[in-house]
Design brief:
Blueprint: H1 5-33, H2 38-80, E1 97-106, E2 111-120, E3 125-130, E4 135-138, E5 151-157, E6 160-166, E7 173-179, H3 184-190, H4 194-201, H5 205-240, E8 245-247, E9 253-255
The structure holds zinc ion (2 copies).
Length: 256
Protein backbone atom coordinates (compact mmCIF):
# COMPACT_ATOMS: atom_id res chain seq x y z
CA UNK A 1 0.00 0.00 0.00
CA UNK A 2 1.60 3.25 -1.11
CA UNK A 3 -0.52 5.76 0.78
CA UNK A 4 -0.79 5.96 4.53
CA UNK A 5 -4.20 6.22 6.20
CA UNK A 6 -3.42 9.81 7.20
CA UNK A 7 -3.26 10.76 3.50
CA UNK A 8 -6.78 9.44 2.97
CA UNK A 9 -7.92 11.25 6.11
CA UNK A 10 -6.40 14.46 4.82
CA UNK A 11 -8.22 14.06 1.50
CA UNK A 12 -11.54 13.49 3.29
CA UNK A 13 -11.04 16.46 5.64
CA UNK A 14 -10.06 18.64 2.71
CA UNK A 15 -13.39 17.84 1.08
CA UNK A 16 -15.26 18.56 4.34
CA UNK A 17 -13.59 21.97 4.59
CA UNK A 18 -14.47 22.73 0.95
CA UNK A 19 -18.13 21.80 1.48
CA UNK A 20 -18.43 23.91 4.64
CA UNK A 21 -16.65 26.89 3.10
CA UNK A 22 -19.03 26.83 0.15
CA UNK A 23 -21.98 26.73 2.53
CA UNK A 24 -20.57 29.66 4.49
CA UNK A 25 -20.00 31.68 1.31
CA UNK A 26 -23.51 30.92 0.13
CA UNK A 27 -25.11 32.31 3.32
CA UNK A 28 -22.75 35.28 3.47
CA UNK A 29 -23.81 36.23 -0.06
CA UNK A 30 -27.48 35.68 0.81
CA UNK A 31 -27.14 38.03 3.83
CA UNK A 32 -25.52 40.69 1.64
CA UNK A 33 -28.32 40.46 -0.94
CA UNK A 34 -31.13 40.48 1.59
CA UNK A 35 -29.93 42.12 4.82
CA UNK A 36 -33.45 42.15 6.22
CA UNK A 37 -33.39 38.33 6.32
CA UNK A 38 -30.00 38.20 8.01
CA UNK A 39 -31.32 36.55 11.19
CA UNK A 40 -33.15 33.77 9.40
CA UNK A 41 -30.17 33.12 7.10
CA UNK A 42 -27.84 32.88 10.09
CA UNK A 43 -30.13 30.40 11.75
CA UNK A 44 -30.41 28.30 8.58
CA UNK A 45 -26.64 28.40 8.16
CA UNK A 46 -26.04 27.23 11.73
CA UNK A 47 -28.52 24.40 11.37
CA UNK A 48 -27.28 23.24 7.99
CA UNK A 49 -23.67 23.44 9.10
CA UNK A 50 -24.44 21.47 12.25
CA UNK A 51 -25.94 18.57 10.28
CA UNK A 52 -23.39 18.75 7.46
CA UNK A 53 -20.44 18.56 9.88
CA UNK A 54 -22.12 15.69 11.72
CA UNK A 55 -22.82 13.79 8.50
CA UNK A 56 -19.21 14.17 7.42
CA UNK A 57 -18.06 12.83 10.80
CA UNK A 58 -20.50 9.89 10.71
CA UNK A 59 -19.37 8.79 7.24
CA UNK A 60 -15.65 9.51 7.67
CA UNK A 61 -14.41 6.10 8.79
CA UNK A 62 -16.53 4.03 6.37
CA UNK A 63 -15.71 6.30 3.40
CA UNK A 64 -11.97 6.15 4.09
CA UNK A 65 -12.14 2.35 4.56
CA UNK A 66 -13.91 2.19 1.17
CA UNK A 67 -11.22 4.29 -0.51
CA UNK A 68 -8.43 2.15 0.94
CA UNK A 69 -10.17 -1.05 -0.17
CA UNK A 70 -10.75 0.43 -3.63
CA UNK A 71 -7.06 1.38 -4.00
CA UNK A 72 -5.99 -2.03 -2.75
CA UNK A 73 -8.16 -3.65 -5.42
CA UNK A 74 -6.61 -1.42 -8.10
CA UNK A 75 -3.07 -2.19 -6.95
CA UNK A 76 -3.82 -5.90 -7.07
CA UNK A 77 -5.32 -5.61 -10.57
CA UNK A 78 -2.34 -3.61 -11.81
CA UNK A 79 0.16 -6.03 -10.28
CA UNK A 80 -1.42 -9.11 -11.85
CA UNK A 81 -2.42 -7.68 -15.27
CA UNK A 82 -0.57 -9.10 -18.29
CA UNK A 83 -0.15 -7.72 -21.79
CA UNK A 84 -2.39 -10.01 -23.89
CA UNK A 85 -0.01 -10.24 -26.89
CA UNK A 86 3.28 -8.74 -28.19
CA UNK A 87 2.33 -5.46 -29.86
CA UNK A 88 3.85 -4.45 -33.20
CA UNK A 89 4.19 -0.89 -34.47
CA UNK A 90 1.84 -0.28 -37.41
CA UNK A 91 4.53 1.71 -39.23
CA UNK A 92 7.83 -0.18 -38.79
CA UNK A 93 6.53 -3.57 -37.53
CA UNK A 94 8.98 -3.55 -34.63
CA UNK A 95 7.73 -4.68 -31.25
CA UNK A 96 6.48 -1.69 -29.26
CA UNK A 97 7.92 -0.99 -25.82
CA UNK A 98 5.64 -1.27 -22.81
CA UNK A 99 5.80 2.09 -21.00
CA UNK A 100 3.30 1.74 -18.16
CA UNK A 101 0.01 0.27 -16.95
CA UNK A 102 -3.10 2.26 -16.05
CA UNK A 103 -6.63 1.51 -14.95
CA UNK A 104 -10.09 2.88 -15.66
CA UNK A 105 -13.72 2.21 -14.86
CA UNK A 106 -15.75 0.38 -17.46
CA UNK A 107 -19.48 -0.04 -17.96
CA UNK A 108 -22.41 0.72 -15.70
CA UNK A 109 -21.02 -1.49 -12.95
CA UNK A 110 -17.79 0.58 -12.88
CA UNK A 111 -15.64 -2.51 -13.33
CA UNK A 112 -11.92 -1.77 -12.96
CA UNK A 113 -10.03 -2.61 -16.16
CA UNK A 114 -6.30 -2.34 -16.84
CA UNK A 115 -4.70 -1.11 -20.04
CA UNK A 116 -1.08 -0.87 -21.18
CA UNK A 117 0.56 2.11 -22.78
CA UNK A 118 3.18 1.24 -25.39
CA UNK A 119 5.48 3.28 -27.62
CA UNK A 120 7.63 3.09 -30.73
CA UNK A 121 10.21 5.84 -30.29
CA UNK A 122 11.46 5.58 -33.87
CA UNK A 123 8.04 6.32 -35.36
CA UNK A 124 6.89 8.49 -32.41
CA UNK A 125 3.64 6.62 -32.09
CA UNK A 126 1.88 5.15 -29.09
CA UNK A 127 -0.92 2.72 -28.44
CA UNK A 128 -3.17 1.53 -25.66
CA UNK A 129 -3.87 -2.17 -25.30
CA UNK A 130 -6.48 -3.46 -22.89
CA UNK A 131 -6.33 -6.84 -21.17
CA UNK A 132 -9.29 -7.87 -23.32
CA UNK A 133 -7.06 -7.43 -26.41
CA UNK A 134 -8.63 -4.18 -27.66
CA UNK A 135 -6.05 -1.85 -29.23
CA UNK A 136 -6.19 1.91 -29.81
CA UNK A 137 -3.40 3.72 -31.66
CA UNK A 138 -2.22 7.17 -30.60
CA UNK A 139 -0.45 9.00 -33.40
CA UNK A 140 0.35 12.51 -32.18
CA UNK A 141 1.68 13.68 -35.56
CA UNK A 142 -1.29 12.53 -37.62
CA UNK A 143 -3.64 15.28 -38.83
CA UNK A 144 -7.18 14.60 -37.52
CA UNK A 145 -8.67 16.07 -40.72
CA UNK A 146 -6.61 14.53 -43.55
CA UNK A 147 -4.46 11.91 -41.69
CA UNK A 148 -1.23 13.35 -43.22
CA UNK A 149 1.89 13.93 -41.17
CA UNK A 150 1.85 17.32 -39.38
CA UNK A 151 4.73 19.56 -38.38
CA UNK A 152 5.14 19.58 -34.60
CA UNK A 153 7.12 21.89 -32.35
CA UNK A 154 7.37 21.84 -28.56
CA UNK A 155 8.88 24.78 -26.68
CA UNK A 156 9.45 25.19 -22.96
CA UNK A 157 8.91 28.45 -21.08
CA UNK A 158 9.52 28.09 -17.36
CA UNK A 159 7.33 25.24 -16.21
CA UNK A 160 5.04 25.43 -19.27
CA UNK A 161 5.42 23.12 -22.25
CA UNK A 162 3.79 24.50 -25.39
CA UNK A 163 3.10 22.24 -28.37
CA UNK A 164 2.14 23.60 -31.80
CA UNK A 165 0.88 21.33 -34.57
CA UNK A 166 0.43 22.39 -38.18
CA UNK A 167 -0.72 20.42 -41.22
CA UNK A 168 0.84 21.79 -44.40
CA UNK A 169 -1.48 19.60 -46.47
CA UNK A 170 -4.92 20.84 -45.34
CA UNK A 171 -4.05 23.84 -43.12
CA UNK A 172 -5.19 22.31 -39.79
CA UNK A 173 -3.58 24.02 -36.75
CA UNK A 174 -3.61 23.25 -33.05
CA UNK A 175 -1.67 24.45 -29.99
CA UNK A 176 -1.87 23.51 -26.31
CA UNK A 177 0.12 24.18 -23.15
CA UNK A 178 0.94 21.77 -20.37
CA UNK A 179 1.81 23.36 -17.03
CA UNK A 180 4.21 21.08 -15.19
CA UNK A 181 4.06 23.13 -11.98
CA UNK A 182 0.45 22.19 -11.21
CA UNK A 183 0.60 20.42 -7.89
CA UNK A 184 -2.17 19.98 -5.33
CA UNK A 185 0.23 19.93 -2.38
CA UNK A 186 1.36 23.46 -3.27
CA UNK A 187 -2.24 24.59 -3.23
CA UNK A 188 -2.66 23.18 0.28
CA UNK A 189 0.48 24.92 1.51
CA UNK A 190 -0.83 28.23 0.22
CA UNK A 191 -4.13 27.76 2.07
CA UNK A 192 -3.54 30.04 5.06
CA UNK A 193 -6.85 29.25 6.76
CA UNK A 194 -6.53 25.50 6.41
CA UNK A 195 -5.64 24.67 10.05
CA UNK A 196 -8.23 27.06 11.47
CA UNK A 197 -10.99 25.89 9.11
CA UNK A 198 -10.20 22.25 9.68
CA UNK A 199 -10.68 22.79 13.42
CA UNK A 200 -13.96 24.62 12.72
CA UNK A 201 -15.48 22.16 10.27
CA UNK A 202 -14.01 18.70 10.99
CA UNK A 203 -15.44 17.29 14.21
CA UNK A 204 -13.06 15.47 16.54
CA UNK A 205 -14.25 12.25 18.24
CA UNK A 206 -15.62 14.04 21.28
CA UNK A 207 -17.65 16.48 19.16
CA UNK A 208 -18.65 13.70 16.77
CA UNK A 209 -20.01 11.43 19.53
CA UNK A 210 -21.92 14.39 20.96
CA UNK A 211 -23.51 14.99 17.54
CA UNK A 212 -24.48 11.32 17.15
CA UNK A 213 -26.07 11.29 20.63
CA UNK A 214 -28.01 14.48 19.92
CA UNK A 215 -29.11 13.15 16.55
CA UNK A 216 -30.35 9.94 18.17
CA UNK A 217 -32.30 11.97 20.73
CA UNK A 218 -33.83 14.09 17.95
CA UNK A 219 -34.81 10.97 16.01
CA UNK A 220 -36.57 9.37 18.97
CA UNK A 221 -38.31 12.68 19.72
CA UNK A 222 -39.45 12.82 16.07
CA UNK A 223 -40.84 9.27 16.29
CA UNK A 224 -42.74 10.08 19.48
CA UNK A 225 -44.23 13.20 17.87
CA UNK A 226 -45.29 11.13 14.86
CA UNK A 227 -47.04 8.59 17.07
CA UNK A 228 -48.92 11.35 18.93
CA UNK A 229 -49.89 12.93 15.61
CA UNK A 230 -51.12 9.59 14.17
CA UNK A 231 -53.18 8.88 17.29
CA UNK A 232 -54.73 12.36 17.08
CA UNK A 233 -55.60 11.82 13.41
CA UNK A 234 -57.16 8.42 14.07
CA UNK A 235 -59.31 9.89 16.82
CA UNK A 236 -60.41 12.75 14.59
CA UNK A 237 -61.21 10.38 11.72
CA UNK A 238 -63.27 8.22 14.06
CA UNK A 239 -65.26 11.20 15.36
CA UNK A 240 -65.92 12.47 11.85
CA UNK A 241 -66.85 9.08 10.29
CA UNK A 242 -70.58 8.20 9.72
CA UNK A 243 -71.76 5.97 12.53
CA UNK A 244 -73.24 2.58 11.62
CA UNK A 245 -75.68 0.35 13.46
CA UNK A 246 -75.60 -3.39 13.75
CA UNK A 247 -78.97 -5.15 13.91
CA UNK A 248 -78.75 -8.15 16.15
CA UNK A 249 -80.93 -11.20 15.50
CA UNK A 250 -83.16 -10.28 18.39
CA UNK A 251 -83.81 -6.89 16.81
CA UNK A 252 -81.60 -4.81 19.09
CA UNK A 253 -79.60 -2.07 17.40
CA UNK A 254 -76.01 -1.63 18.48
CA UNK A 255 -74.19 1.57 17.55
CA UNK A 256 -70.68 1.04 16.21
ZN1 LIG B 1 7.63 2.06 -35.39
ZN1 LIG C 1 -4.35 17.87 -42.57
Amino acid sequence: MNKSRSEYEHRYDRHTVDICRKLENYYQEACKKEPSKRKIYRLCHELELYFRKGDRYRNRRSTIDGWIEHDREIEEKLATAKLPYPVQCRFCSNEMRNMDKFWEFKGKSNKIVVYFYLACKDCQVYCQVWESGKRKDRIPWQCPDCQCKMEMETTRKGSALKTCKKCTHCGYKNAYTLDLSEDLSLEIEKDENWVEDMARFCLNDEEGFKFLREEEALKSLGEKMKKIETKGKEKQEYNESPKMCWHASDGTRIKL
